[in-house]
Amino acid sequence: MEKHNFTFPRKEKLKSKKLIEQLFKEGKHLSSFPYKLIYLKMDEPMEVRFKTGVAVPKKNFKSAVKRNRIKRLLRETYRLNKHLVFNNSEGNFTFLILYLGKDMPTYKQVEKGMLAILQKFLNKIDNAKVD
């Protein structure tokens, strides 16, 4: 049986302003409403294979409490499902996961959306390998 690492340590978190700007400028994106994944394959080696950040627009959720709740749900579902991406891809990537919905999601909805967007990402990079 394969052992999964269900942690989300500080070094895996996307915090660098420079990296985030580069991600928005050069990154590719996938959508599975209400989620959007912006990703960028990194050429230079990083200390971890994936750096991930989550965001919820202030425009859709004025209340910081609600925004933070959604970000916690996004981070938790990513943490529990990141092994899918780690085990099925090669290379270093930076991710930014955005929640673009207008309604407060439940954990089950977030998990379903996270699985869908990660699967879409894996399909996309598998197709890129074939080309």
From TrEMBL:
* Catalysed reactions, semicolon-separated: Endonucleolytic cleavage of RNA, removing 5'-extranucleotides from tRNA precursor
InterPro entries xref list: Ribosomal_Su5_D2-typ_SF, Ribsml_uS5_D2-typ_fold_subgr, RNase_P, RNase_P_CS
The UniProt keywords, alphabetically, are:
Endonuclease, Hydrolase, Nuclease, RNA-binding, tRNA processing
Q: Set out the biological process GO terms recorded for this chain's protein.
A: tRNA 5'-leader removal
List its EC numbers: 3.1.26.5
User: What single Pfam family name could you report for this chain, choosing any that match?
Assistant: Ribonuclease_P
Q: What class of enzyme is it?
A: hydrolase
Per the UniProt entry, the signal peptide is: none
Taxonomic superkingdom: Bacteria
What PROSITE patterns does the annotation carry?
Answer: RIBONUCLEASE_P (PS00648)
GO terms assigned for molecular function: 3'-tRNA processing endoribonuclease activity; ribonuclease P activity; tRNA binding
UniProt function note: RNaseP catalyzes the removal of the 5'-leader sequence from pre-tRNA to produce the mature 5'-terminus. It can also cleave other RNA substrates such as 4.5S RNA. The protein component plays an auxiliary but essential role in vivo by binding to the 5'-leader sequence and broadening the substrate specificity of the ribozyme.
SUBUNIT field: Consists of a catalytic RNA component (M1 or rnpB) and a protein subunit.
The family note in this entry says: Belongs to the RnpA family.
Q: What is this protein called?
A: Ribonuclease P protein component
Q: What species does this protein belong to?
A: Maribacter luteus
State the encoding gene: rnpA
